[in-house]
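I wish you would study the pair of lines that follows with an eye to the fold:

===
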Amino acid sequence: MNKNLWAKAALAAVLQGAAFGIAFAPCTIPAAEARGHESLETRLHRAAELGNIEDIRTLIRDGVDLNFPDHRSRTALMIAAHKGNVEVVRLLLNNRAHPNIMGPQGRTALALACAGNHLEVAKLLLAGRADPNLVDRRGQTPLLIAVR
């Protein structure tokens, strides 16, 4: 079995065994409107993309809205999950980033982590109360995404 199939199998096992506690209601945030010059949130999205932990810590201290969407309707948590950045995901979750916000195509941070075979990120998101049962616009749950 190749490495990619092992990752998919492991991710599927984690998702199947996820304990279901209290889950946040799914919500979709519309695309961000222009806010003048570069806002704290724009800097947050760029820092999440680049994995810049220190910039993210500074922005959190400055009061950035962790759940504010970028121009593509993605939160910083979604960006970090898609990139597989464990430390950024951990930092954002520890500072109350909402794991069940739906972005483009109705995908959550967990769905994006599953699509990228990022097992450690998926585990963190599940521990942070990401709902593995949310369905995207294609009718897929994170588990279905993980095994495809």
Remarks:
- The beta strands are 27-28, 101-102.
- The CA atoms of residues 60 and 95 lie 8 Å apart.
- The domain at 3-19+39-147 is CATH 1.25.40.20 (Serine Threonine Protein Phosphatase 5, Tetratricopeptide repeat).
